[in-house]
Amino acid sequence: MHADGRAERLPESAHEGLRLLAVHAHPDDESSKGAATMAAYAAQGVKVMVATCTGGERGDVQNPAMEGDPRASRDMAGLRWTEMAKAAQALEVEQRWLGFMDSGLPEGDPLPPLPYGAFATLPIEQAAAPLVRLVREFRPQVILSYDENGGYGHPDHIMAHRVAVEAFHAAGDPERYPGLGEPWSPSKLYYDLAFSQQRFQVLHQALLDAGMDSPYEEIIAMMMAEQDSTEDVHGERPQPHQVTTKIDCGDYFPVRDEALRAHASQVDPEGFFFAVPTEMQRKVWPWEDYALAESRVPATLPENDFFAGLR
Among 72, 91, 131, 255, which one is least packed by beta carbons within 10 Å? Predict the structure, then answer.
């Protein structure tokens, strides 16, 4: 462990040749969802790639300290590209832009239409093509993305889920997406479960037990209300994905926090993501949670390694 709390990078050994591709909707999503996991694998010698679907150009400034920042007002896209580069450097991962336009988060009743040509409005074949090309080039054994609701319902997150699933199924088929590289079939597809109600409840209770204020009570109530009210087209309430895979990565929480702070326009350093002291997180929830959605290799669940069955 380094003096600044960062974990030591391990020498490459049995991890050499392993590759993980994380598919995210916007810059900053890679730092708020699965960042410590990616940093842990990168430190082991696994090659880790982040595919960022959009430039995040329709994001609003979320950090009060940057309100009125001239670059944020005139060049949000350029600012977020710079922030993404800093975050990738902190995590020690590679990163690629897929080149799509941020859809923004529509608000109102009824909701307004999404901007013409935005990522979430595109046909799936068009939206998935750059990711299929990247899968065939990078050749990951494991793909990581969001569940069917995109984690929290943002249209770009839902589309990121769709293109990740499409690429997982199509990249190995020589009849599909011709001209985009030699076919490659990833072995495992995972969904990130970072924003789980159970995790928030544990962190919430840990703060209360320590006599500290918690920002989670309202969030937990909203999640419970949404779960009670959400129905699918058949009038049934969809069940959330169950955790199948816990990646022990508490030593890399400081790296995750450094990556989060790199997204200065989007992340308040005094806000939600930093409400729980790092040592408290390491004590009560020192892992990150995932659901194994599909596997082309035998899997024994629960597991604690994305590459179980592949090493």
Answer: 72
φ, ψ of residue 250 to 5 degrees: the values are -60, -30
For the ranges 78-92, 233-247, 256-270, the lowest mean pLDDT is seen at: 233-247
Distances from the Cα of 95 to the Cα of 30, 81, 172, 220, 265, angstroms = 10, 11, 22, 32, 19
DSSP string covering 183-226, please? ----SEEEEE-TT-HHHHHHHHHHHHHTT---SHHHHHHHHHHH
Whole-structure pTM value? 0.91
Q: Are 104 and 140 in contact (CB under 8 A)?
A: no
What is the rounded CA–CA span in Å between residue 144 and residue 50? 9
Look up residue 283 and give its amino acid: K
Cβ within 8 Å of residue 14, ≥6 positions away:
311
- Count of other CB atoms within 10 angstroms of residue 86: 16
Query: If you average pLDDT over residues 126-153, what whole number do you get?
Result: 96
Mapping DSSP to helix (H, G, I), strand (E, B) and coil, where does residue 233 land?
coil
Across the beta sheet with 287-295, the strand order is 94-100, 47-54, 19-24, 142-145, 188-192, 287-295, 245-248
Digit-coded pLDDT (tens) for 24-76: 999 999 999 999 999 999 999 999 999 999 999 999 999 999 988 889 889 99
For 41-60, give one letter per residue: b (16+ CB within 10 A) or e.
Answer: bbbbbbbbbbbbbbbbbbbe
Q: Are 48 and 12 in contact (CB under 8 A)?
A: no
Residue 248 burial (C-beta neighbours within 10 Å; 0-12, 13-18, 19+)? middle
pLDDT tens digits for range 107-129: 888 888 999 999 999 999 999 99
